[in-house]
Amino acid sequence: xxxxxxxxxxxxxxxxxxxxxxxxxxxxxxxxxxxxxxxxxxxxxxxxxxxxxxxxxxxxxxxxxxxxxxxxxxxxxxxxxxxxxxxxxxxxxxxxxxxxxxxxxxxxxxxxxxxxxxxxxxxxxxxxxxxxxxxxxxxxxxxxxxxxxxxxxxxxxxxxxxxxxxxxxxxxxxxxxxxxxxxxxxxxxxxxxxxxxxxxxxxxxxxxxxxxxxxxxxxxxxxxxxxxxxxxxxxxxxxxxxxxxxxxxxxxxxxxxxxxxxxxxxxxxxxxxxx
Length: 275
Known about the structure:
Blueprint: E1 2-3, E2 10-12, H1 14-17, E3 22-27, H2 51-64, E4 71-73, E5 83-86, H3 88-91, H4 95-101, E6 107-110, E7 115-121, E8 125-131, E9 136-142, H5 144-148, H6 151-163, E10 170-174, E11 184-185, H7 187-195, H8 200-203, E12 204-207, E13 212-215, H9 217-227, E14 235-237, H10 252-255, E15 262-268
Parallel strand pairs: 4-7, 5-6, 10-14
Antiparallel strand pairs: 1-2, 2-3, 3-15, 6-9, 7-15, 8-9, 8-10, 11-13, 12-13
């Protein structure tokens, strides 16, 4: 990952930095105005933080980007597998209708320029996708429940059905989240992955020290990308553990769910050749 701002309140991805039609970011905990467990750059409105602090933090993010987004689209995530396409139907809806459309959504897809689609995480895995041929982007929230139910694969399938997305054209970035060494799970979680067909020798490890299985959510999502035909050279993994680096990134396992969230966003800029 590369710093987007001098104060490191926002990071970017090297793979996507080479595409002029794309703007993307991942926030850290720094550079905002929230207090306590939300300190300081919490941009997510669904966590119990003060609404005015969230609004100001969102403004900090928008004004820090090279091109200001028309809006930040932030869904209310529920660890499901539903993906919403942000198109004219959403953009022409009322504020109340938009709010309703974003409930229970864990992935967003769009080809609308200037519309920044976002995912909130704090140990779960944020994944940003760019179909460079069809100028389609997606943001995916993959906690263990979403991962075990193949949310990333489902999102890619939806991109293919709607826009003709092919794996060879996808650039994928797997963001900061909990690492294998930090993510110890109960037997029921291990069994859920095994029963759903995951390569357990590739995505898990038994740790004698903890007497627990540990799951690698980065690897489990990378497998879904490779299965779709995304070349491994077109997948960037941040390799940043939010649980370990909780002073830099929000971690719900450390701080509880009443805490801040990292915001990962991606946007097609108006300079994109297909628009």
